[in-house]
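Q: Give me the 3D complex with L-tyrosinamide.
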Amino acid sequence: MSHTRSHSADGVTKIRGEYWPQLRARRRGAGDDGANTGRPSDGDTVVERRTRPETRTKKPPMYKVILLNDDYTPMEFVVEILKVVFNKQHAEATRIMLHVHQNGMGVAGVFPYEIAETKVRTVEELARQSEFPLKCVMEKA
Ligand code: TYC
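A: Here is the predicted complex, encoded as structure tokens.
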């Protein structure tokens, strides 16, 4: 192939020169009569438009941070954890704590991986300091 491509920030790729060599053979002698065939002939500038963005904008995977029920951690402690670590208001913290108490587990929040990891560690460290067995896990949302 003997064409050159120039890329620009607006997503347009310009191709100058011979792009489809087989076309040249077919058109040899005919020249470009200017007919709009949708195909370039020698020396034409071909414009290609990007169909997907240049930069990756994929959202990070999210992780649920899940509190597990146990028989020993006081309800008030779990409510405090939900307020301090997960920024919940009192009523919402109480609702989540009761859900965990009644159902065995419940979602405290959903975060990107490293934030979720830090929340899990913070909960277990605060529980450990108070000698409560409160457990917390994370799971892909
Ligand atoms: N089941 C505990 C109790 O009766 C309360 C509790 C709620 C513990 C939620 C852990 O994640 C938990 N004291």
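A quick observation: Confidence is low (pLDDT under 50) at residues 13-38.
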